[in-house]
Amino acid sequence: MRRLNKKKALNLVNELDAFPKIPESYIETSTSGGTVSIIAFTTIALLSIMEFFVYQDTWMKYDYEVDKDFASKLRINLDITVSMKCNYVGADVLDLAETMVAASEGLKYEPTVFELSTRQKMWQRTLQKIRKKVQEEHSLQDLLFKSAFRGLPTALPPREDKLSHPHDACRIHGHLYVNKVAGNFHITVGKAIPHPRGHAHMAALVSHDVYNFSHRIDHYSFGEPIPGIINPLDGTEKIAIDHNQMFQYFVTIVPTKLNTYKFSAETHQYSVTERERVINHAAGSHGVSGIFMKYDISSLMVTVTEQHMPFGQFLVRLCGIIGGIFSTTGMLHGFVGFFVDVICCRFKLGAYKPKTELYQQNYTANKTRKSVETRG
Q1: Per-residue tens of pLDDT for the chain, all 376 residues
Q2: Cα–Cα distances in angstroms (integers) from residue 161 to residues 41, 292, 372, in the given order
Q3: What does the alpha-carbon distance between residue 241 and residue 90 come to, in Å, rounded to a whole number?
Q4: CA distance from start to end of the chain
Q5: DSSP secondary structure string, 298-354?
Q6: CA–CA separation, 143 vs 6, rounded Å?
Q7: Three-state DSSP class for 71?
Q8: Residue 253: what are its φ and ψ, rounded to 5°?
Q9: Helix, strand or coil, per DSSP, at residue 257
Q10: What's the rounded Cα separation, in Å, for the pair 135 and 317?
Q11: Burial class (CB in 10 A: 0-12, 13-18, 19+), 213
């Protein structure tokens, strides 16, 4: 009984088959058709492999929204070397609310030598090249986002040689927490002192001859540091041409949420413009010698999310490739065959030659073959 029911079910399935079946004896094969079939299957294989690589790849999607978090603190990470001794310079932050954050709260002053060793110079040149490429090719930034935690740290490597001369510079490194408003981080002559009427540095105690604000920025970022991310100011080096020189960096910070398949982080991207000038009061160029980094925070937040092609979409695209190539090659083969038939019919070529000419050609060929055999 089960076998009978199974046989009825198979018959029912056969009757429901809506695709016409052509007996193999009705199909005429040809060399051109076989060639087209080989080309079609090769193209399908190549495009399917390429589509699989596209399916494996991911891309970054950027969404924008208003940043509503104003109560939290902003973290500033820095590693700057100034070509002056540590007892001559002071660093601190002053924001729009006239709130001063002293460098003693998170920054360290470390005596060092301004000139880099051979390995450190190679590191700096490599970092500058990568930073330049990131600025030119913006797609590299997405690659850095996807591989951030797998990247190498961007900190300056330690010296491999011994110092041959005494310390002539000061390395200021560490981090600060400031209010999430526009502010000014600066390094200038003299240590900062609290003042009820404003902001002051003890510059009068430092001789003008020791002023030298040549500096190197090994790292400068905002928010939680992410290894492998190249920031716009990393690797920057400026040489002062005058004792009284001001270096200004105008930074625009954009809060960023980064979500990939491997990690999530809240960080900050930024763009920067630079300006430097010599302070000369007699010529109308007023100001204070030093390094000034004026930052402002954007009201927009960028959410960067790593996305992947859905498996269903991959199957649809794969079916489209296979079906499209089959249909296209079949249409092209039919059109080319029709065009060849028209030309052969018009000029009496191939199978469209008159029978008398075909008979004459066959007769001549047979006669030539017989004469060759007789001579042999």
Answers
A1: 455 566 677 777 666 665 566 666 656 666 777 787 888 888 889 999 999 988 888 888 889 999 888 788 889 999 999 999 888 888 888 887 666 665 556 788 999 988 888 888 888 888 888 888 877 776 667 777 777 655 555 677 777 777 777 888 999 999 988 888 888 998 988 877 766 666 777 776 777 778 889 999 999 999 887 776 788 898 899 999 888 899 999 999 999 888 888 778 888 889 999 999 888 877 878 888 899 999 999 988 999 888 888 889 989 999 998 888 888 888 887 777 777 777 777 666 655 566 555 556 666 666 666 665 665 5
A2: 62, 32, 92
A3: 21
A4: 76
A5: -SEEEEEEEEE--HHHHHHHHHHHHHHHHHHHHHHHHHHHHHHHHHHHHHT-GGGS-
A6: 57
A7: coil
A8: -100, 135
A9: strand
A10: 34
A11: buried
Distance CA(234)–CA(240), nearest Å, equals 18
In whole angstroms, give the CA distance from residue 13 to residue 7.
10
Decide if 209 contacts 317 (C-beta within 8 A). Answer: no
In the chain, which ranges are continuous DSSP H helix? 2-16, 31-56, 118-136, 139-146, 311-347, 355-375
Query: What angle separates helix 31-56 from helix 311-347, to the nearest 10 degrees?
Result: 160
